[in-house]
Design goal:
With 367 residues, this protein is α/β, with parallel strands linked by helices. It folds into three domains: 77 residues, no CATH class; 112 residues, Alpha-Beta Plaits (2-Layer Sandwich); 129 residues, Rhodanese-like domain (Oxidized Rhodanese, domain 1), CATH 3.40.250. The chain is 20% helix and 22% strand. The chain is built from eight helices and 17 strands. Strand 3 and strand 4 form a beta hairpin. The longest helix has 13 residues. The protein is globular and about 55 Å long. The two termini are 41 Å apart.
């Protein structure tokens, strides 16, 4: 039985103007949550609300059975492996002074290279860094996606035509920021997709309080150095080490991600959000020897920076090892090196973007 009702929505993203939204309720379950906007929990085929760091990014309050007049106000905010919001002209942004954005510069390219990267290093003036970065990249044809700039560093999830546009993007990031994000690491290159594939609507450079909100207490956070998070293992090294007996392997993602797929023998933290990780870590590792090698992984690597630093510096584990570029990098490596054998990651890699859950491409290998 379909029940029609109306819900008043009061939202800072919509300039605090109450909107009335007719909702038809049948087998759907709506749970209203307080964020910068009211958020609803929909059937998973209709929307995704949290990014891959466990933070609510956006909302869809206009399901398919609502009229199109509501869709201009309510739109899915989406992200790749490390957490991105898409923008839209019809959605007032609230704190827009912290945001620079534009539609993609027209391009003749037929494909886009998906990529992400992050770098933790102090930025004294995030607004100035945002301005410099935006000015250096806003001419690149076809570039779209989101940069987050904060005092603690930068985080980006992007799509750009391969070749010269990609080269220009990486060079511009290296020269326009207060640091070179690629001095000690390479960007995480994902799929090459058709330019018609839904990825990102705009190029957005946004200032935030954190590039990865963690929920760590101020006292503990003040004592942590993100550059001391344990060594990164290449996908090849990781592949060899995790197949050994008695390997301690911790899945630093949220439970809904772990349930879709994980490495053989991994211990899931079982969190609903990344902010819950710290109590869970202490319980999960309570009986581990402090000198035991601990292998940690997440979707793209960024969460493991903070988890690794917390384990080394606060929990006093001496041997913490991280998977370089996370699951995304591991699976791409095995695709490019079939001689390495079968992947030890079983299931699907849960990605928050408009494209898809990452699907198995064949039945005999890399997921």
């Amino acid at each position: 039985m379909v029940l029609s009702t109306a819900v008043a929505l009061w939202s800072t993203r919509l300039r605090r103007r109450p909107l009335w939204l007719p909702l038809a309720l049948s087998s759907w379950s709506y749970q209203l949550l307080a964020s910068s906007a009211v958020v609803a929990a929909f059937h998973p085929s209709t929307c995704l609300l949290q990014n891959n760091h466990g933070r609510i990014q956006g909302y869809v309050i206009a399901p398919p059975f609502c009229g199109s007049s509501y869709h201009r106000y309510f739109r899915l905010y989406s992200s790749t492996g490390t957490g991105t919001e898409s923008s839209h002209n019809d959605i007032p942004t609230g704190g827009s002074s912290a945001v620079l954005s534009q539609k993609p510069v027209p391009t003749d390219a037929s494909v886009l290279q998906m990529l992400s990267f992050y770098h933790f290093e102090d930025i004294q003036d995030p607004l100035q860094a945002r301005n410099s970065l935006f000015e250096s990249i806003n001419h690149i044809p076809g570039l779209r996606g989101t940069f987050y700039v904060a005092r603690e560093g930068i985080n980006a999830q992007l799509a750009v035509p391969p070749g010269e546009p990609l080269h220009t993007l990486l060079e511009s990031c290296s020269t326009s920021l207060p640091f070179d994000p690629f001095a000690n690491q390479t960007p995480n290159l994902g799929d090459v997709v058709s330019i018609d594939t839904p990825t990102f609507d705009r190029l957005v450079v946004r200032v935030r309080d954190y590039i990865l909100r963690d929920g760590i207490s101020h006292e503990i956070a003040a004592s942590l150095n993100w550059s001391d998070a344990g060594p990164e293992l290449s996908p090849s090294e990781w592949h060899d080490q995790v197949q050994k007996d008695k390997v301690v392997l911790i899945d630093c993602r949220n439970l809904y991600e772990s349930e879709q797929g994980t490495f053989d023998g991994a211990i899931p933290l079982g969190t609903a959000t990344f902010q819950e990780s710290w109590d869970k870590l202490e319980r999960v590792t309570a009986d581990f020897p402090k000198d035991a090698p601990v292998h940690i992984f997440c979707t793209g690597g960024i969460r493991c920076v903070k988890v690794g630093a917390y384990m080394k510096q606060h929990l006093k584990f001496s041997d913490v090892r991280r998977l370089e570029h996370g699951i995304i990098g591991y699976e791409k490596f095995l695709e490019e090196h079939p001689e390495m054998g079968t992947s030890t990651f079983q299931g699907d890699n849960f990605l928050f973007d408009k494209r898809r859950f990452e699907e198995k491409k064949d039945s005999d290998a890399h997921q």
